[in-house]
Amino acid sequence: EILSCDWSSDVCSSDLIWYNVTMNLPKDSAILLGFLNLKLRDEYSSLRALCEDLDADREGIEAQMLAFGYVYSEQANAFVCV
Questions:
Q1: Residue 6: left if φ>0, alpha if ψ -120 to 50, beta else—which one?
Q2: Residue 34's Cα: distance from chain center in Å?
Q3: 44 near 37, Cβ under 8 Å?
Q4: How far apart are CA 60 and CA 51, in angstroms?
Q5: CA angle, corner 79, sides to 32 and 59, nearest 5?
Q6: Crossing angle of helices 29-42 and 58-67, rounded to 10°
Q7: Bridge partners, 80 (sequence order)
Q8: Per-position DSSP letters for 12-80, written without gaps between them
Q9: Is the entire prediction scored with pTM above 0.85?
Q10: Distance CA 43, CA 64 (A)
């Protein structure tokens, strides 16, 4: 069988298997803090956008960061020390 391929790449769409993968966030609070602030600085305009895109639990993230001594600041678009 000859399949229609996008010849701009080396892979035919029929060869691809798509998965709905939830982003595995770092478990360690210090590493998570750095990860989140990097993503917020470079890729996302808000924590809401980050959580929606990564299918992440915003309340869980905020609770973990609060226990670590940080809260999300919309003005800074970053987690900041309380």
A1: beta
A2: 12
A3: no
A4: 11
A5: 70
A6: 120
A7: 71
A8: -GGG-----------SSHHHHHHHHHHHHHHT-SSHHHHHHHHT--HHHHHHHHHHTTEEEETTTTEEE
A9: no
A10: 21
Token pair, residue 51, equals: 């959580």
Q: How many CB atoms lie within 10 A of CB 36?
A: 25
Is residue 10 scored above 60 in pLDDT? no
* CB contact at 8 A, 80 and 70: yes
Q: Residue 8 is which amino acid?
A: S
pLDDT digits (tens, 9 = 90+) for 24-47: 899 999 999 999 999 999 999 999
